[in-house]
Amino acid sequence: MNETADIGWAKLDLGRERRTGFPEVVFCQGKPDEALVAICRTLAERQGSVLGTRADARQAELVRGALPGVRYDPVSRILSLPPESPPEPEGLVAVCSAGTADLPVAEEAAQTAEFFAARVERVYDVGVSGLHRLLGRLDDIRRARCVVAVAGMEGALASVVGGLVDVPVVAVPTSVGYGANFQGLSALLSMLNTCANGVATVNIDNGYGAGYLAAQINRLACRGKA
Amino acid sequence: MNETADIGWAKLDLGRERRTGFPEVVFCQGKPDEALVAICRTLAERQGSVLGTRADARQAELVRGALPGVRYDPVSRILSLPPESPPEPEGLVAVCSAGTADLPVAEEAAQTAEFFAARVERVYDVGVSGLHRLLGRLDDIRRARCVVAVAGMEGALASVVGGLVDVPVVAVPTSVGYGANFQGLSALLSMLNTCANGVATVNIDNGYGAGYLAAQINRLACRGKA
Amino acid sequence: MNETADIGWAKLDLGRERRTGFPEVVFCQGKPDEALVAICRTLAERQGSVLGTRADARQAELVRGALPGVRYDPVSRILSLPPESPPEPEGLVAVCSAGTADLPVAEEAAQTAEFFAARVERVYDVGVSGLHRLLGRLDDIRRARCVVAVAGMEGALASVVGGLVDVPVVAVPTSVGYGANFQGLSALLSMLNTCANGVATVNIDNGYGAGYLAAQINRLACRGKA
Amino acid sequence: MNETADIGWAKLDLGRERRTGFPEVVFCQGKPDEALVAICRTLAERQGSVLGTRADARQAELVRGALPGVRYDPVSRILSLPPESPPEPEGLVAVCSAGTADLPVAEEAAQTAEFFAARVERVYDVGVSGLHRLLGRLDDIRRARCVVAVAGMEGALASVVGGLVDVPVVAVPTSVGYGANFQGLSALLSMLNTCANGVATVNIDNGYGAGYLAAQINRLACRGKA
Amino acid sequence: MNETADIGWAKLDLGRERRTGFPEVVFCQGKPDEALVAICRTLAERQGSVLGTRADARQAELVRGALPGVRYDPVSRILSLPPESPPEPEGLVAVCSAGTADLPVAEEAAQTAEFFAARVERVYDVGVSGLHRLLGRLDDIRRARCVVAVAGMEGALASVVGGLVDVPVVAVPTSVGYGANFQGLSALLSMLNTCANGVATVNIDNGYGAGYLAAQINRLACRGKA
Amino acid sequence: MNETADIGWAKLDLGRERRTGFPEVVFCQGKPDEALVAICRTLAERQGSVLGTRADARQAELVRGALPGVRYDPVSRILSLPPESPPEPEGLVAVCSAGTADLPVAEEAAQTAEFFAARVERVYDVGVSGLHRLLGRLDDIRRARCVVAVAGMEGALASVVGGLVDVPVVAVPTSVGYGANFQGLSALLSMLNTCANGVATVNIDNGYGAGYLAAQINRLACRGKA
Amino acid sequence: MNETADIGWAKLDLGRERRTGFPEVVFCQGKPDEALVAICRTLAERQGSVLGTRADARQAELVRGALPGVRYDPVSRILSLPPESPPEPEGLVAVCSAGTADLPVAEEAAQTAEFFAARVERVYDVGVSGLHRLLGRLDDIRRARCVVAVAGMEGALASVVGGLVDVPVVAVPTSVGYGANFQGLSALLSMLNTCANGVATVNIDNGYGAGYLAAQINRLACRGKA
Amino acid sequence: MNETADIGWAKLDLGRERRTGFPEVVFCQGKPDEALVAICRTLAERQGSVLGTRADARQAELVRGALPGVRYDPVSRILSLPPESPPEPEGLVAVCSAGTADLPVAEEAAQTAEFFAARVERVYDVGVSGLHRLLGRLDDIRRARCVVAVAGMEGALASVVGGLVDVPVVAVPTSVGYGANFQGLSALLSMLNTCANGVATVNIDNGYGAGYLAAQINRLACRGKA
Q: What is the DSSP letter of E170?
């Protein structure tokens, strides 16, 4: 069976689901219109579902023209065509975020994890300068199989959360801030230098990557290794 | 019960095992001699085991003077006093490394994971410029619940491995290299910008952090969430 | 013979073809309209051919107004007036690229090499996170006299390709990516730190520079040194 | 009256105490031996007290040869000759630090503030990965007129403390850490990007500067503005 | 009493005034319209006053639609609803700035300090390349309980002022400049490396942070610690 | 045939010569003594020749103890055991360097190219601040099939040479310099931003990489593609 | 006499001409319209001449509305009102530039020097990749009392010129380029690391600063020190 | 006449004095012993004088063995053999420095200028945090034809001096400082971003370069252009 669909614009990796357990995903930003539509159509036909990240509203309209069942969320910029019979959500991923401006990245993480069958608890606006907000949600966070910590500016949330839980924390620095933030560098370095254990970091603003990894860990915790 | 042991030099976090499932660990580098011995002695008494990272040979001798059962590995620079009846190793963590100079970091990851009860498969010297070496070990890697990918220079190993497995990959950039490597920056940025899914990154040369996280994921995959 | 054409706006280096074997080329981006037209017209008259890089559609229209035979490719942003009797393509340059977003840079490299008389094989969308795509095209790549490897994000393609071939690899980092990509810095550092032999790097997004160098090497391999 | 003592090696600013309320201080590191002794001797004679920072043990011996009353603390590297009748300590400055390795910088801050007549409360080893340690000392911290927060690695302590108190927090990033810490850059950027109010930052490892500023604020809070 | 107002968009920290003496403030930039209005309305109701920073004219109009008493200053971009009976201004904060382009940041600092009940003296356009301008205002500056020094480019103002006064100087680097200014990095590094005592630095362009801290110090100098 | 020799310390890639035309090379710096000797011995037995780079004098002695025929050059730090009947040198590679301090890197390039059968012309100490030195050697340079340009500080040599020849220029930035040189960054950026055509860059101080690539191009120019 | 004109918007330094020999100059970019007009009007009245840099066309129109004699050059973005009887040009400043895109910065330098009474020779488009263009103008350059060297990309022009003349060279890096140019950093570092003597550097794109300094040196060479 | 002395180790540029008015100078640091002696001997014979910079005491001894008349100053690390009948010092260069730790760089500048026949006034330890020290020496500074401003840390001295004089200021950032000084980067950026006119900058710690340029300007001011 040919696992690569060569559609001129791109070589779609249809073997990904077999190899990794999760289907191919589309990074929409910057894709030419025709390519985007062709890719989504092919994935819908061959995979039965589509997840597109970093899509703008115009792209969403375009894809919906070709695939009417597609949904679009302007906050997370996620475009999705769920499978016909989506799996039951399982386990629990907690997505924590520091400030309201981190919401788009947090939602990208949350909705990605949900697309990949994780149940998700949102714990938003719990930045460390008002610690009682975070401590007030600690029980919700501690029930999770994996925690995603999303923060810009000084990115301290990941370290504080990391010291409070017994499961992996996926840290997502965001580009929220200004000045010596240097487009997310401050939060990125903070998270890489965390004094807490069990924390690893993904790229700045990479909510998708964190959601994927959290879903993978959550699935392992629910099902073990096949 | 007082979960903090205040020994003057430091406040030892004895509640860590209860909170996180893994005991307190000692970062030896730069600790004054007296402090190091006092900390190790207290942990041995209160936790029944000690894991010390980044210890040099002189420090190891010193600690062994106070705690004769302590072992020391000069490659990983790990100093350890295992618990009296260590748990049976479980699951599988694969630790892959790119070059021979990455060995100390890879061993720090591997021995940390082993200390935290994970079974470990070592897959060393499989850098991407000789791809057949990696592909020849693929079956071993694919059996793991979590993969640690250790690489300096251009750090490409994490992306290649990430595309071949269905479990989380913890990427560890090392400071191995020279010139435009900038003490590990090149590998760090590579890993953060990986085009593969399911990859997260820890600090440069942080084998311990990767081993801890891998053990955490492995335990979740074996036992689920308590 | 005066080898410099001083046209007020610029001093055109008409001796370049004699000195280097390849004619003067125009970097269009940012050139004032009048200057661009004057330069292209002079080159067409004195050299008999024009190659313009980084041209936008408006500039292409403008030049076409003065030189009707000019062609324009919006993907590579190359504007060209081929010589009346173009030389037969010779040898083989393989241009490999990692993702669809790298296409403009890859095409700039490919079309530059073609303008300078190299035969070109395009091997696109073969990023290392789906290694089978690259391995499936290995025979095509191995026939080349020189390989151009175009990649953004972590830029691992250059190292992987470098380990598989016996000819020079010209690595082109692209600014494709976001966050800790820092406008191409991650791919640039990756490629400079490659663990593979026979790899050298040009500036970020410099498809033209890579295509030129690849054509130069290809010509040496076909004709030897004059 | 001549307020500058020109001793060949340096121009000592004897008007500083009149202008700023605090006497001239000596940064010992890198001073030639003769210069250091001459400066300390002159200050002892003209000011009646000496505070020297970043002195090593050999320098301390040297100065003690000339000024037998001088004391030296190897942890803070502070060398001092207190005035004959030192002022009564007043107010309260809390010096908090994250880890044991931050001790030298924290002590430099604490002893500087004490030299300038502030009462000091030390709250050490209260890094955010074990939050209960910090929260357990909150009452001590909240009594202070000014808080100094000393932390390396991700430097999150400053933000957490900043959200818990109603007085200024002087943040001191330290160079403690490794890898993507980049000699203190991570903690520095964290502190500059703090989401907490009332926090300002001094140079990396600049315990002296923080102690000085804290003493200044403490004095204002105790005495108001003259 | 519930000190957190959870209004869906955000968790408003109504306990802040009790904990820190100053009420919650709104960073307007980037907030969605509905969220901004909801937050301002809630704060007006629960706190009796609103301070919003980094607001543009459109946002100001919007908020004024909901809260007619709101004022807006386009230079400082501050939007404010003062309390019904504002406290009498007390003490003195001097806000110094180097050039005319630093005015917006200086005004943000000045108006923030005024909102928090400090009397403010503005000392503008006194950059160090024309030293007589600064020296001519020295008496005004020396009356202050705290000085804010705002400067872009080489940021030397903070050091010069720091050597002339006996109270804390809060340094605010601005992004004013071009080229090797790197968006404020030059002024930031200058201020962090000041050779003057009693100087601490806030983030680039963070006039609000400096005004807050200066008001806090000024209040301590006027009232002492409660 | 097993092309990987697994000697515990490392997996030697004995298939490299078949795949790339050049044998496996040893980067000596940082290798443990036993590993270095074992690797050299294995390569001598299986490949019939050894090239070791970045070796210090002690390592050279050590290897010579095991392989008496080994030669060592302290300037280039190259350790070599040539094959029994070395191939006749062919073609021509010109190695140009800017200053006397660049000599070690230039020699590493030159001797590497010679080991791989290229004839080499050395054109040293021809930095651009005394242009007549370079212009006086132009005929020698123009005879080459490939030019290596080695320079530290501002690295301008690569651009000047690139404009004078019709063959590829491999640019090697060196870490020679101080201050704003930032360990070779200035020369690296210069070379990447060259305004000349046909120039590509290798890592800072990577004389070996440049020599390898130059030999590869020289071989192509002499023999064409097999 | 009051040497500072306080016009609300700014404190104009009317003593500058007396102190430095050259009148106050206006950096137009970013000035509010009213301020710009008020400043220019005041300078025209009090100094008898105006030099404004970085003005856009709209600002020029605006100022011309108030001061009809004002001239504007869109390339250099200089706006000027020469004094009634301008001084005779004296001496010679040579302004050299590497490429056509460096023209605006070169013209800013040239016109600034001319405004300050220097005779100027323009030597444009003489970048080092076509060395004959520069060498062909050497006699013109060598007649100058001071040379300004303007270049982007690798900025090699300053070093090459510096080695050919016996007068000071003021190097101006420009932001011309892309990728690893990092907005002029490559040219800046090149020029700071020049191997030539008698070269000093101003900020990226700072044609004005170079023109001012060149005029100052030229005047010293013509008139000596007053 | 052959103006290049090729002594194996280096090509000495004996035409430099004819071309530039100043003889060839030796950068001693890192030169092999034999090369250093050979170069100094050749220059002594052919030029009649030697100036060596960055020499350590051992190198000075070595050269003195071959050339007994050589002098060595351990502070500036300058080694010199003055010409038999040195020219009368002319004009005036003022060398200002901020702190005592800047002395070696300031002396390198001063002694270089003196070697090239400038009279030099030293104005040391006049950093801007004690402004009265600088203002007290203003008359001395204003007599100079050129001012060298040497400063580390925040490097503010150059801007302050630049605003007070009517001649060129050569700014020399030093690596004096720690933390966010980043080995001189803070002073370098400060000086490049100066708000004063007539200031240009040389490399970090490049006292030699500043002394050379100042002597060149001083000579022009005294003699005009030949």
A: E
Query: Which residues make Cβ contacts (< 8 Å) with residue G94, sequence separation at least 6?
Result: G120, G121, G123, G140, G141, G143, G144, G146, G147, G148
Residue of A nearest to D157 (CA): A156
- Beta strands B78-81; B50-53: pairing state: antiparallel
- Please report where in the chains the tokens 């404009």 appear, as a residue: F163
Q: Which two tokens stand for residue F128?
A: 């651009």
Arithmetic mean of pLDDT over chain C: 93
Average pLDDT over residues H11-34: 84
Please name the residues in contact with H74: beta carbons below 8 A apart, sequence gap of 6 or more.
H57
Q: Residue D28 region, left (φ>0) first, then alpha (ψ -120 to 50), else beta? A: alpha
3-class SS at H20?
A: helix
Give dist(CA F128, CA F155) in Å, integer: 9
* CB within 8 Å: F213 and C197: yes
User: Chain E interface residues facing chain H, Cβ-Cβ under 8 Å?
Assistant: 98-99, 127-131, 153-156, 159-160, 162-164, 177, 179-182, 185-187, 189-197
Helices (H), chain H: 16-20, 33-47, 57-66, 103-115, 131-135, 138-142, 157-162, 185-192, 207-223
CA nearest H61: which of H26, H37, H82?
H37
Chain H residues with a Cβ under 8 Å from any Cβ in chain E: 98-99, 127-131, 153-156, 159-160, 162-164, 177, 179-182, 185-187, 189-197
DSSP labels, G52-78: EES--HHHHHHHHHH-TT-EEETTTTE
In one letter, which amino acid is D170? V
H-assigned helices in chain C: 16-20, 33-47, 57-66, 103-115, 131-135, 138-142, 157-162, 185-192, 207-223
Which one, of D68, D58, D70, lies nearest residue D33 by Cα? Answer: D58
**pLDDT tens digit sequence for C106-121:** 999 999 999 999 999 9
Cα–Cα distances (Å) from A198 to B177, B201, E19, in that order, read 27, 11, 32
Other C-beta atoms closer than 10 Å to the C-beta of F87 total 10
Neighbouring CB atoms inside 10 A of B149's CB total 35
Closest CA to E120 of E150, E103, E151, E144: E144
CB atoms within 10 A of CB B65: 10
pTM of the prediction? Answer: 0.96
Please state, in angstroms and rounded to a whole number, the distance separating the CA atoms of residues A168 and D5: 61
User: What band does G9 get if pLDDT is binned at 50, 70 and 90?
Assistant: low
Which distant-in-sequence residues (6+ apart) come within 8 Å of D213 by Cβ?
D146, D170, D202, E168, E197, E198, E199, E200
Hey, which residues does G81 pair with through a beta bridge?
A: G50
List the one residue out of F125, F194, F200, F124 whose CA is nearest residue F154. Answer: F194
Buried b vs exposed e over A137-165: b needs ≥16 C-beta within 10 Å?
A: beeebeebbbbbbbbbbbbbbbbbbbbbb
- The residue of H6, H12, H13, H188 whose CB has the most chain F CBs within 10 angstroms, and thus the best one to mutate to test that interface, is H13
CA B162, B164, B168, B172 torsion-angle sign:
negative
Question: In chain H, which residues have their Cβ closer than 8 Å to the Cβ of E186?
Answer: 186, 189-190, 192-193
pLDDT at C4: 78
Q: Using CB atoms, which residue from G124, G136, G179 is nearest to C203?
A: G179
User: In the structure encoding, which two tokens stand for residue H224, read together?
Assistant: 């005009």
* ipTM of the complex as predicted: 0.94
pLDDT of C9:
67
Q: What is the pLDDT of residues B179-222, one digit of tens each?
A: 999 999 999 999 999 999 999 999 999 999 999 999 999 999 99
E106: pLDDT strictly greater than 50: yes
Angle between helices D207-223 and E207-223 (to 10 degrees): 50
Q: Could you read off the pLDDT of H190-202 as tens digits, one per residue?
A: 999 999 999 999 9
- pLDDT for position G13: 78
What whole-number distance in Å separates Cα of residue B223 and Cα of residue A222?
9
Cα Rg, chain C, nearest whole Å: 18
